[in-house]
Design brief:
This protein is of the alpha/beta class. Helix content is about 20%, strand content about 25%.
């Protein structure tokens, strides 16, 4: 494993206290952050004022995180400021242990021996409310995997660069991006999951560029022991064995975060996820990919209802909305409830400004298990689809096998996003999200089963290559379209200005270039293969127009 500035962070949270004392955990909602105009903080710091001095004000944010915000004109606000240390100290002084905390939500989770402790908490003047989020299950041991990490290779197929991943990658036309050298380099992807068994020892991941690894549940336990779900998700993204198994973003940098407690299902996992997302934000992660979702819990009274799928009610959904304002792209699995009683997407995939990914089969039809929309407030969800039925994945034993679920369609779209963003780094996260949606094969008629359909890397590249805002379509023309042998160029007004025309293929490779003296000119394109091309028109040294043309002989 290639460890690029590998950081194993000792979690800010204390370890589990003695079993018997830690019987319950409560989420404490705080009234404020003690931020005043005269305090060390100000309510807002404009993006153009962000600099290294900001680190002294909000030490949780790294230089990379600040640069991401400056690049997208994102101000700092009160959600970036830490929870009041005075409040946390007062809670500790009452005998409670802080398990985790959230600056975005202004909350703290505390451990307690019984529910009577609520009275002490709610009596504190800065506490708004208290909610039970966890009750100790029958066992306090971390679930261990019984898999022994191996490295079994399938038979090589020299005709398929992606090996067993050929179908799932090519469904998104990702080969166009990869062939042009765009494989996610320069972007950091945080995979938030249940565990990454064997990732540290498998040769499949020997070239993995790892920025950080951190456990938010059982610190300081080893995220490479325990559950292997994250291993499988990561393999769809980062595997890089040519002709065996190649992922969707093999050259991206990765941050592996564990937030899912497989021993039980309680709302505290929302708190763990939020802590992981805040950490990702703080170190400068670009994309958060999460193949997890919540709606029902071990205590029925803590579960969500379908009418709460409104993008603003669930605790984790509200946090996801905040995360999306920090300049990160968030991508969630829709869930696998499509043929079950719940049927709908899960939380936080109901958040508005995230990409929610469903699953299709190899024939492009919806997988029966893929969760559906709409949200309870009538919005289209899922947003997009990718292959999630019988995908090739790695299991915790290092064996290349098949798996199904929106857990595996999600990293495919995540990889596409990283490859696009890596080559067009000036895009803002919300712009990238929109480009990906608009490339879907159902973008003109989205529905609540398929969303905007299957995204297409080729279409995104074409859309980004054409700078529509600079086009002067009223004055410059390129025709006919489709073209057979001759392609003509003209201006709507008579001019003798010199004209320069360059034709590119969809990989950005220059195919032809020619200069003309007059306003009326043509190119012989009969030697070009049938395909879609991009045409740049330069007049007197100034860019005037770019268009797509089809050559079809």
């Amino acid at each position: 494993m290639k460890k690029r500035t590998l950081l194993f962070f000792a979690l800010l949270l204390p370890g589990l206290i003695q079993a018997g004392e830690d019987l319950m955990r409560f989420r404490v909602y705080l009234k404020d952050k003690q931020i005043t105009q005269s305090s060390a903080y100000s309510f807002s710091i404009p993006a153009f004022q962000l600099n290294s001095a900001t680190l002294n004000i909000i030490p949780a944010l790294s230089q990379i995180s600040l640069k991401r915000r400056m690049a997208q004109d994102i101000d700092l606000d009160s959600t970036d400021y830490p929870v009041s240390e005075n409040y946390l100290k007062s809670i500790r002084d009452q005998g409670f242990t802080i398990v985790t905390q959230s600056r975005w939500m202004n909350t703290a989770v505390v451990s307690a021996p019984d529910s009577l402790c609520i009275n002490t908490l709610v009596s504190l003047p800065f506490v708004k409310s208290v909610q039970l989020v966890w009750r100790n299950p029958s066992t306090s041991k971390i679930l261990k995997s019984n898999l022994a990490a191996k490295d079994l290779r399938v038979e090589v197929d020299s005709s398929k660069y992606y090996g067993k991943a050929d179908l799932q990658i090519n469904m998104l036309n990702l080969m166009d991006l990869h062939s042009a050298g765009h494989k996610g380099a320069g972007k950091i992807i945080a995979v938030v999951d249940a565990g990454f068994y064997g990732v540290d020892t498998m040769s499949w991941f020997k070239d993995l560029s790892l920025v950080a690894a951190k456990d938010f549940i059982y610190p300081p336990s080893n995220i490479y022991q325990g559950h292997a779900h994250g291993t499988s998700v990561l393999s769809v993204l980062a595997a890089n064995e040519e002709y065996y198994f190649v992922g969707s973003a093999p050259e991206a940098d990765y941050c592996l975060l564990r937030s899912e407690d497989v021993l039980s299902e309680y709302p505290i996992e929302e708190d763990y996820w939020i802590a992981a997302a805040e950490f990702a934000d703080s170190i400068g992660v670009d994309i958060i990919s999460t193949s997890l979702g919540y709606f029902t819990y071990d205590m029925a009274e803590l579960s969500y209802q379908i009418d709460q799928l409104d993008g603003k009610t669930a605790f984790i959904t509200r946090a996801a909305n905040i995360a999306a304002t920090k300049g990160m792209l968030l991508i969630f699995s829709a869930g696998n409830e499509g043929n079950k009683v719940w049927k709908k997407i899960s939380f936080p995939s109901d958040a508005e400004n995230v990409l929610t990914i469903g699953s299709v089969q190899s024939d492009f039809s919806k997988s029966a298990f893929s969760s559906v929309g709409p949200t309870s407030d009538g919005r289209i969800k899922p947003d997009l689809m990718a292959c999630g039925s019988n995908d090739y994945i790695l299991n915790g034993a290092g064996i290349l096998t098949k798996g199904s679920g929106t857990s595996f369609s999600t990293p495919l779209v995540t990889g596409l996003a990283a490859c696009i963003w890596g080559n067009w780094p000036n895009l803002k996260a919300n712009e990238l999200r929109q480009y990906i949606k608009e490339s879907g094969d159902r973008a003109e008629y989205p529905d609540t089963l398929y969303g905007y359909g299957i995204p297409n890397a080729r279409e995104i590249m074409l859309a980004l290559r054409v700078p529509f805002e600079k086009n002067d379509k009223a004055n410059y023309y390129c025709y006919p379209n489709p073209a057979k042998d001759k392609l003509y160029f003209s201006e709507s007004h008579i001019s003798d200005e010199p004209l320069e025309v360059t034709i590119y293929n969809t990989l950005g490779q220059k195919m032809m270039k020619k200069k003309f003296d007059g306003a009326f000119s043509y190119l012989d394109v009969s030697h070009l293969p049938n395909a879609v091309y991009l045409v740049d028109i330069i007049v007197s040294g100034s860019f005037k127009h770019c268009c797509k043309i089809l050559i079809n002989k």
